[in-house]
Every structure is written in C-alpha cells, then in structure tokens.
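FORM 7B: Structural annotation worksheet

SECTION A. Query
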Amino acid sequence: MNKILLTNDDGVYSTGLKAAYDSVCDLGEVTVVAPSTQKSGVGRGISIFEPLRVSEANVNGFKAYAVAGTPTDSVIIGLFSILKENPDLVLSGFNIGENISTDTVTTSGTIGAALEAASYGIPALAASIQVIDEGDKFDDHREYNYDFDVGVKIVNRIAKKVISKGLPHGVDLLNINIPKHASMDTEIEITRLAPKIFITGVEERFDPRGRPYYWINGDLIRDAEEGTDVKAVMKKGHISVTPLTLDSTARVDFKEIEELL
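SECTION B. Predicted structure
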C-alpha cells in the first residue's frame, strides 16, 4: 500500500488540512503530522535550539500528530520518528492563501515543508487556495468556510499520477495554486515563478511611551508577465502548477563570475 505523509503550516486543526486529507485518503495510508499551531511565514525554518513535543490528536475524523514546531520540524518528525521510512508522497497543504512568486517560495511554511521532503528524494506537492480577503490568511482556520471540492479533485488527480510515475527529472516538487472561484473546467496552466507578489511597505507606529514599532505590510501585485504564476492565478483565474527544484544555483557561465573575483 502507498504511504503518504501529510502536513501543512496553518496548524493541525485547519480545515485546509482536512481537505488535503480528503484529496489523498483513497490513494494509500495517510499519516498526518502537522504543527500544533499556526506557523505561516516560517519558510523552511527548523527548531535546533529547543526540544520538540509531539501529541496525538483526533481532528476532523482522523488521527494526527501535533508537533510544537515548524512545518519542516513536522516533516522531519514524521519521517524519522513516526514513519521511520520514506513515504511515496508528501503533501503539504491546503494553505489558506495563495503561495505564488519568489516572495512566497522563500517564506511559505507550506512550501518549506515540501522542500524538506524533497531534499530526501521524496516526491512532494505543495497545495494552496487563493483568498480574496487578505485577512482570511490570519483568521482561525479551524472554522474557515471554503469549498475545497475543486482543489481536492485536482490534487487527487495529480497525486495519483505522481505516485505512479514520479516527478520528471530535475523537478523536486510541484507548487499547486487554486484560484478562489475555480471549477473543474478552469484551465490548468504550467507556470514559472513571478519575481514578486508583494509591494513591501513598513508602517511606523508609536507605543504609549512614544517609542516606535513597525508593521511590515504591503499591497498585492495582481498582474505579471505571461507564463508566471501570478499572472495565471491573480489575473486570469487559472489553476497554476509550478515545477520547483531544490538547486538554486544560477544558470550562468561561471567565467562571468570569475571576472568578478
């Protein structure tokens, strides 16, 4: 029987995790190991200065392991302490909020967990759904009301083929983003990463003692070059599938670098 490890970054009680479970539960034995609380924005962060506590939970009708750490911690605990072997697939998601552009690939805990799995040669998928109201990303996801039906079917179809055929050579994971109003007729577009999705800003405020503190904020970029994930999801309403690799080495003639040295 196929073995599947499921995780996320919104926490073990997120409705997105339940939807992700529904998307692969018919494909094999699913082990759920996820952060005990919301851990968005931690990227591929790992806890190396403190111990990790793990507790068993029964959430949304299935057994899960809640890890008091990051999504990457959850993958490591799942692989080396619970499963003690490589599964046939690791699925990270569904994240409440799109994960598109280089901005999110380097900061998303959802993608960070998938990258960790991929580093051990395990086929990995990261799945996210678009939100229209940015505040939804920060709400209590235990009660998040969203129709995941299309996402469940799309991820099921992709996961089934990845388990049977593997990922193409040079691809370590697939980053899947489902637009808010997707249907089964929505076009699926294979995309590359857009450079940015956030116009970063910093808001300065002052506490009651007159000392400054700061909020990092910024508006979303809703259009980009053709062929990018931002263009596909934000402008065209398409489902975006972006093949990613762990190798971040720039594809450049090394002689050009030698000239700088």
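SECTION C. Observations
The two ends are 53 Å apart (CA to CA). The helical segments are 15-24, 71-83, 101-105, 109-118, 149-165, 229-235, 254-258.

SECTION D. Sign-off
Analyst initials: ____
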